[in-house]
Design a protein that fits this description.
The protein has two domains: 9-75, Ribosomal Protein L25, Chain P, CATH 2.40.240; 84-240, 3-Layer(aba) Sandwich (Alpha/beta knot). 29% of the residues lie in helices and 24% in strands. The protein has helices spanning 26-35, 92-104, 125-139, 153-158, 179-182, 202-209, 226-240, and strands spanning 9-11, 22-23, 43-47, 53-62, 65-75, 84-87, 109-114, 146-147, 151-152, 165-169, 190-194, 214-217. Strands 6, 7, 8, 9, 10, 11 and 12 form a seven-stranded parallel beta sheet that branches. Strands 1-3-4-5-2 form a five-stranded mixed beta sheet. The longest helix is centred in the middle third of the chain and has 15 residues, at 125-139. It is elongated, with a radius of gyration of 20 Å.
Length: 245
């Protein structure tokens, strides 16, 4: 069932149960009452990443409170995406873009990875989580991706579950077409690894290429920025061996 983009969508933390009111938080109150200027009797769509999407009525028990009362489920909760997205953090503005696009493209887990040439850093994991929720609200996504704490690339690879294949974008690859390589992959559990603006170091490239559970792919003849490469790689993976098939 396709998303309804004519109605405002709102993420809530609480369980969503028919006719069971949910108290809106202060930020939600300000957004609904002061930004959207909604009144009692208006309706929005609510979701929590667990209970599907619900048509929900708004009421004002007092001037400073809003209650959200689920009326009926409009979409059932889908299974979460199994694609893991591993990325070297970028500078703040572009990092926000990267996270939002990863959610839109179907990432089920976002894992920041610290590499030798990384230029950005994660100072506030809650900011990443907020960007994930905002992207889900805007794009009709019901399954909220998990966001994990940053980890060093070497530490990540040491404890990696070998049944999940890592596909990594190698800017030093001599080829141009990733499709033949992607079509050789038989594993159902996948992760995409995209490096920093400066690329992977030679030691990191050698480490990745020496692991049986890693496949290196090129991304065509053009040099792409890291955030552009992430979107391009996720698109080609979803089209070739992911959930676009």
């Amino acid at each position: 069932m396709r998303a309804n983009f004519r109605m405002q969508r709102l993420f809530v933390d609480a369980d969503i149960v028919e006719a069971s009111p949910i108290e809106a938080g202060q930020d939600q109150f300000n957004y609904l009452a002061n930004v959207l200027r909604l009144e009692g009797g208006a309706e929005v769509l609510t979701f929590n990443g667990r209970d599907g999407e619900w048509r929900t009525g708004i009421s004002f028990p007092s001037r400073k409170r809003i209650q959200l009362t689920p009326i009926e489920q409009t979409r059932p909760q889908p299974a979460p995406s199994d694609l893991h997205y591993l990325f070297a953090p970028l500078k703040v503005g572009r990092l926000d873009y990267l996270v939002q696009k990863a959610v839109e493209m179907g990432a089920g887990l976002l894992q920041p990875v610290m590499t030798q040439h990384v230029q950005g850093k994660i100072t506030n994991i809650d900011r990443l989580k907020s960007n994930v929720v905002e992207a889900a609200e805007q794009c009709g996504i019901l399954a909220i991706p998990n966001v994990t704490e940053p980890v060093k690339l070497t530490d990540l690879l040491q404890r990696w579950p070998i049944e999940r294949r890592i596909i990594y974008c190698d800017e030093g690859d001599a080829g141009q077409n990733p499709l033949p390589l992607l079509r050789t992959i038989k594993e159902k559990h996948l992760a995409l690894l995209v490096g920093p603006e400066g690329g992977f170091s030679e030691d990191e490239r050698a480490l990745l290429r020496g692991l049986d559970f890693v496949t290196a792919i090129p991304l065509g003849p053009r040099i792409l920025r890291a955030d552009t490469a992430a979107v391009a790689a996720m698109a080609v993976i979803q089209a070739a061996i992911g959930d676009w098939e």
